[in-house]
Write a structure and sequence with these properties.
The chain has 746 residues and is an alpha+beta fold. The protein has helices at residues 2-14, 16-35, 51-62, 88-102, 141-155, 177-193, 196-224, 228-258, 263-290, 298-329, 348-360, 364-374, 376-391, 412-424, 444-456, 489-509, 518-552, 556-581, 586-589, 601-629, 634-662, 669-701, 710-715, 729-732, and strands at residues 72-78, 107-110, 125-132, 160-164, 399-400, 432-437, 461-464, 468-469, 475-482, 512-516, 597-598.
Length: 746
């Protein structure tokens, strides 16, 4: 592989005009497609195989025209202090608003609060439910504007009017914080390279790659029903890995220049060595993201595949456009360690003195690795205990999906949620819809009554509506209001109790009792994700483990990498629980409402963090193996790997943390939580696991770390990540690299 990538790097360097034109043209094409595409909506929760989804399907079949999966809105009215919604003037305002809403082009039906029990017992709060013919993702902006205009007209009469439900869900905004993240990345790159030109290359290539990826997602959003969150997550991951991959190749290029190589040869060798690591690191990320499809949740599958596509583009750009831009930059990108004005290639005697100067003035990475090699047990114990302590909150993990109660208090959705809780109780924001399918029963009416009576006898149900049968009389719906908020454990217990009672009904009458609604759907999603976590972890870690065996030609190094990943992801989940569930530092993070952790967070973090963790594992340990293969002792190879890679890996981690942390400012709770979780996970994995635990374990293992059974060594393909195939005969004999530059024989 190193030889193939070496030739690719030299080709891109020589044919820089063609390569740059290709990527710019692709960006323009994707941008044109995105400009003419509809705006991305919000992904719907279609969860095959769950009871809630089965109930939705029954409603669609037995209650035609009911728009079971249509968007909904609750227009909530509150009377001024000392007044009631039953006053004649306020009643007239509400009924006018209901009549106005009924004229909406996509509206299926609107309920009158005074005819349907939509007024609170104290008379201060009332609500009208609006059901649309299409889902929230398909709802036209004109319908949202019409809804808001109707509410504004009612406000003009002195009422407090707020709107809840999914009809007003907007495209999440990340704010200026992500720009700050990119700014931090730029500062880190300048410090790392000491040059604006060298620092600008990773940023430029990453932005082009993310631009192509996100524009392509936007262009296909309508066709593939991709939600707006999909493009944000693709941007988050693509930007982080895009900068990192380019950073590693530019850094290796400067190191090759410092060895006295010509620029074209240095570009080829940088792509052949660091580029090999980029390919395998990218593969681990792609495997982890595409592997999300095993969960069988369409929204999660689309998010994973879209993000994986953006990562693949980042890899291709790093291998081709980075060397092309290095060709344009010319002498403005200097060799590592070279200061002052760029000039010609350094004198040979200066190159000969450099190793001695480095030996006399070891860098921070060398000093740290030397310390770890001398004290491996102490460093290992400290790292493991520290991560274990950070992971303790994860033992209290509660899972759920965000609802309007997790929105900022500045939003109308959150204010509507609070008004309904005030007037009708917390459970009113998450009513359960019980579907009774008595088609195979001899007496459907008796089944409907029995089901309603059984549910009324359960603890946790505030109200149970009479059964509402369809025209055929073989299916009915019963609305159940819990006495606890939708995301609480008590509400989840009530759902399970209703389903247990439904099992008894089925045993007696052959009727199916199914629980659905947004709350039940969220519970089913959480359960499905929990059930899929272990198979997903086994698949992704297993495939990546095999891949790393091929890369490192070792059994223990990939095993150590996987165990270190588990430590970092558990510690990151602990931090997420502490902030978003317990409320620690919640004000600093902009978390206005604590509650259960988003149900897809564990499985998403496992996938993404594993891929990113393997990035640092491949980049750092590949340098160590390269030194070991070239004849150094195991302990010295660890130090050599840190001397060449620690600064760059640290810079890459800081950049990735800055990019992820930038998304903490998002208005979308899911994006905010993922941004925080990934930023913390990268910190733990890069600076504790890879920088401390990894060298400590390798120092303790010694030569055993690189052990591989002979039979397996013969079977595995030789991918040559270390670039051994690029070494000339003179270099293999210990001579100068200038003695032989003819790589045509390789």
């Amino acid at each position: 592989m190193a030889t193939l990538l070496y030739r690719l790097g030299r080709f891109a360097f020589r044919r820089r005009h063609f390569v740059a034109l290709f990527w710019v043209a692709l960006l323009a094409l994707a941008g044109a497609g995105a400009a003419g595409a509809p705006v991305a909506g919000n992904s719907s929760f279609s969860i095959p195989g769950t009871e809630a989804q089965k109930a939705f399907d029954v409603l669609e079949e037995r209650f035609p025209g009911s728009s079971a999966d249509g968007a909904t809105a609750r227009v909530v009215f509150k009377a001024p202090a000392g007044e009631k919604m039953t006053d004649a003037g306020h009643r007239a305002t509400v009924q006018d608003t209901v009549g106005e809403l009924s004229d909406g082009s996509e509206v299926a039906r609107v309920t009158d609060p005074y005819a349907g029990g939509g007024v609170s017992k104290d008379g201060t709060v009332a609500y009208a439910s609006v059901t649309y013919q299409v889902s929230g993702m398909e709802l036209e902006d004109s319908s949202r504007d019409f809804l808001q205009d109707a509410a504004e007209s009612a406000r003009d009469t002195g009422l407090t009017v707020e709107i809840g439900g999914d009809a007003l869900q907007a495209v999440p905004a990340t704010g200026a914080a992500e720009i700050i993240g990119i700014g931090v990345a730029a500062v880190v790159l300048v410090i790392t390279f000491g040059s604006l030109v060298a620092a600008g290359l990773p940023l430029l290539t990453a932005l082009i790659g993310v631009g192509i990826g996100v524009a392509s997602i936007t262009a296909l959003a309508s066709t593939l029903e991709l939600g707006s969150t999909t493009s944000i997550l693709a941007m988050m991951i693509g930007l982080a890995v895009g900068i990192d991959y380019a950073l590693f190749i530019v850094s290796r290029y400067r190191a090759e220049l410092a060895e006295g190589r010509e620029r074209e040869d240095a570009a080829g060798r940088a792509v052949g060595t660091a580029g090999s690591a980029v390919v395998f690191a990218g593969l681990t990320v792609v495997i982890a993201l595409v592997g999300l499809s095993v969960v069988n949740i369409p929204m999660l599958t689309k998010m994973g595949i879209a993000a994986a596509g953006t990562v693949a583009i980042a890899v291709l750009i790093a291998l081709t456009m980075v060397p092309a831009l290095l060709g344009y930059a010319g002498r403005r990108v200097r060799a590592a360690g070279e200061k002052g004005k760029p000039g010609g290639r350094k004198a040979k005697n200066a190159d000969e003195e450099k190793p001695q100067q480095q030996a006399q003035r070891p860098n921070l990475g060398t000093r740290w690795a030397s310390f770890v090699v001398r004290r491996p047990v102490a460093v290992l114990l400290l790292g493991v205990v520290g991560l274990g302590a950070a992971a303790v909150p994860a033992s209290s993990l509660e899972l759920g999906l965000p609802d309007d109660g997790s929105q900022p208090t500045s939003t109308t959705q959150r204010r509507a949620y609070d008004l309904l809780s005030e007037g009708f109780g917390p459970g009113f924001n998450g009513p359960l819809v019980v579907v009774v399918d008595a088609k195979d029963s001899d007496d459907p009416d008796a089944v409907f009554r029995q089901t309603g009576d059984d549910i009324k006898a359960l603890d946790g149900a505030v109200s149970v509506s009479p059964a509402a049968p369809n025209k055929a009389g073989d299916t009915a719906t019963i609305t159940v209001v819990p006495d606890s908020k939708p995301s609480s454990v008590a509400t989840e217990d009530l759902v399970h109790d209703i389903r247990d009672a439904g099992a008894d009904v089925r045993a007696d009458t052959d009727a199916d009792v199914l629980v659905t609604g947004a709350t039940a759907m969220n519970i089913d999603v959480s359960q499905k994700l929990n059930d899929a976590l272990l198979p997903y972890l086994t698949l992704v870690v297993g495939l990546a483990f095999l891949l790393l065996i091929v890369v490192f030609r070792s059994i223990l190094v990939p095993l150590k990498a996987a165990l270190g990943f588990l430590l970092s992801v558990m510690a990151a989940l602990g931090a997420v629980v502490a902030v978003f569930q317990w409320g620690w530092l919640s004000g600093l993070m902009g978390v206005e409402e604590t509650g259960p952790v988003m149900s897809m967070m564990p499985i998403f973090m496992v996938g993404v963090v594993f891929g990113l963790a393997m990035d640092y594992e491949v980049f750092l340990v590949t340098r160590m193996r390269e030194a070991y293969v070239h004849g150094e002792k195991p302990s010295q190879a660890v130090v050599t790997g840190f001397r060449h890679g620690a600064r760059v890996v640290s810079a890459a981690a800081v950049i990735m943390m800055a990019v992820f942390a930038g998304f903490i400012g998002s208005s979308e709770a899911m994006v905010k939580m993922i941004g925080f979780g990934l930023a913390v996970a990268v910190f733990f994995d890069a600076f504790v696991v890879r920088m401390a635990i990894v060298p400590a374990v390798l120092a303790l293992l010694g030569r055993k770390a690189w052990w591989l059974p002979k039979w397996l060594d013969r079977v595995l393909p030789n991918v040559d990540v270390e670039g051994e195939g690029l070494r000339t005969d003179a270099e293999r004999k210990g001579g100068s690299p200038d003695d032989d530059r003819d790589l045509a024989r390789v």
